Structure formats: structure tokens, C-alpha cells
User: What shape does this take?
Amino acid sequence: MRSEMVSFAANGGSADGYLAIPDRPGPGVLVIQEWWGLVGHIKEVADRFAAAGFTALAPDLFHGEATTSPDEAGKLFMALEVDRAEQDLRGAADHLATVASGNSVGVVGFCMGGQLALYAASKSPRIGACVDFYGVHPNVHPDYGAIRCPVLGLFAENDGFVNAEAVAGLDASLTGAGVAHEFHTYPGTDHAFFNDGRPEVYDADAAADAWDRVIRLLRGSLG
Assistant: This one.
């Protein structure tokens, strides 16, 4: 596999992203960042997808800004321009379709990116599968009735951002919209349990199980 930073058309201009390509072109997967930005962990996730045979693109939704400070991350999170992010994601999906196999792509997002994954699925007809890892953003409101692909939701039992009530509400919204979906909540885990760069919350067993579920969904939906 190989990886590189690339530019693609978006918002009447261009945006950047991290592209990871397997030895043979595979189905496309968009990887959407947490509130830290396009950091090493997200690039490593894209590399893992490529190692599994997928062509993965992680768009830089903060356009060069990234941080390890929760306070700064919170500011970037709240300053996100939702319409611009949606156009960046649409441009990323279009670009991915030109370098991956197949016409549809999957989308996998974490925290802020999880909510944006749902939003992208509601906006782009190219999205053939959607994975929401503990998604949250107060200004991102997907039109669930417009989602035409299966959704996998992966949540933490002790999540202070996406609690059981929020998960139940999302479940009800997707059910009401007729969206095929599967949810799994991991007992004893915290928000961001998949992020192995944060040992204070990382849970290896839950992350491994979640990864298996994601790969099964993508392979079953995208080929």
C-alpha cells in the first residue's frame, strides 16, 4: 500500500486529505476526523483500511488546523462551518470514486466525524454504507429520511457526550425514517474507546470488535 496527501475539488476551490491506497484498488471509504483535526490517529485508521483492501480518504475538515488541547479542539469543533464541511465531504466522495473500485463509497466517522458521517450519508447518493462511532455535534442535523444506506452505530456505555438517551433517540429517528441500522454499545467503555492514541479511554477489546463489525459492513455493502 501507499499513502499521500492529495487535493480534490470542493466548494468551488480545493480541499486536502490523506489518501491511503492498497496494492490493488479497493472499495472507497471516507474516514472523518474527531475534533482534534486530521491527526496521526486518523491517518493510521486510513492506513488500516488500506491494509484491509479499501481505498481510504480522510479529508482535512479543519483545513490545516489540528491540536492536542481539548480547549482548542472545542473551539475548532464549534467553529466548524457545516455547509462547507458537507461540500468538502461531497468533493472527497467524488474524488474517492475516481481512485477506488465501485461507484459507491463507505463513510466512517468518529465523535464529531460520526455525526458528520450520518450527515454525509443524508446528502450524498454516493454513500453506500455509514458507520457512526459515538457521533456528536450540536450544529449538525442529518435528514435521516434521506439516508439510503445501512448504518452501523458504535457507542460507549459511559459516554458523557452520547449517553443512552441520545443513542435511543437516534435509534428511534432511524427506525422512524425506515433506515436499516444496527447499534452496539460496549459495556464499561468511555467516549473515544477506539482511539489507541488516548490510553486513558482506549479499550482494545471493544476496538477490535468494533473494527470487525465495520469491516463486515463495508465488505457486505461495497463489495
Remarks:
- Helices lie at 40-51, 70-79, 82-99, 112-123, 164-176, 204-222.
- The radius of gyration is 16 Å.
- The beta strands are 2-10, 13-21, 27-32, 55-59, 101-110, 127-133, 151-156, 181-186.
